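Notebook B, p. 112. Complex prediction, attempt 2.
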Amino acid sequence: MSISLDTKTFNVEKIREEFPILHQKVNGRPLVYFDNAATTQKPKAVIDAISRYYSTINSNVHRGVHHLSQLATQAMEDSRLTLQKHINARESYEVIFTQGTTDSINLVAIALQRSGLIKSGDEIMVSALEHHSNIVPWQMLCEQSGARLVVIPMNEKGELSVEEYRALLNEKTRLVAFNHISNALGTVNPVKEMVKMAHNVDALTFIDGAQATPHMAVDVQHLDTDFYALSGHKVYGPTGIGVLYGKEDILEKLAPYRGGGEMIESVSFEKTTYAGLPHKFEAGTPHIEGAIVLGTAIDFLNEVGVENIAAHEADLVHYGIERLSSVEGMRFIGEARNRAGLISFVIEGVHPYDVGVLLDKMGIALRTGHHCAQPVMAYYKIPGTLRASFAMYNTRAEIDLMMEGLEKALQMLR
Ligand code: PLP
């Protein structure tokens, strides 16, 4: 990675002080938290903002004329502006608050179906590298509409084959869904190029940005994607909140995902008319404090600097690979040229689960299993991997602790 770390503004020890949860012992040892691809820990700014919301402005939004309701509404809409700026959406109403990436994908899949935009004989394309949440909703859409699910193949390194992708695209392709960064392997996909190729056959594009947004700057206008999704809890924010970005003209064409309060213009038993964007897709009382505090998390991320974070994590990936390479029987799963955030591996003769359990006894949290990407595991003919995934607060010293733990675990297991 060409991005360099600005050591004047990035100090990992200072950053660690911002995360109270890191300063504890697990099973009598200092916690080493390497499960950041599953969820990140929260800085004090985020924890305090949740408490501040409930202590000062808690109220329902968009419906009250009273003081607290106005403050809560303002704070939520300010957060939408923060998100708009962060991903460089053209309009704030192109940013829809959802429960997270999974919810964003389901929203689009269901809305496409409701709008009659997917028909029998159409094709929906996903990549071989996807998380289940970027497979199953499209599969359900195919089952209900009679469309066909087509898969972009991957290679042994864990990269998508752009040439095969080009060959699969055709006039029947309606939508292509792929991740920006794979949660199982860390592969960074050539998403801008993939969007352009999909647009050449007039297909829509959906980028799952759950793993990219914690590690890199994202510009949806530059990518020119039709949809982009992210999860708050992966970017140091609360769980149960996320964003769906969609281009205005396409969102306008989509029928609402859920019906209820907040998403209507007028309701009668004869006919209901819907609110404009973004409210058309935000039925019911939203996750108000989540939406507000997601903005706080994004401010925190930008204060540290996404480029600093990327450079720091690239160093950890590089160092981790170097250290792990010395382990007898090591097999890295996923060795894409362009990768970020994590290392996935198996060790000959031992089950990832057993290693994970022993590491936990030493206070080291790694993920073991299929990482909600069973097709990726099937490709490599393995049940799962061990995954060390990094965040801004991780250190080389923690990788050294993982190595000590791993050596001990292997002595016990072999
Ligand atoms: N897509 C990817 C690549 C992920 O890593 C994840 C979560 O791990 C998801 C989608 C689902 O995100 P969420 O559970 O926040 O909806």
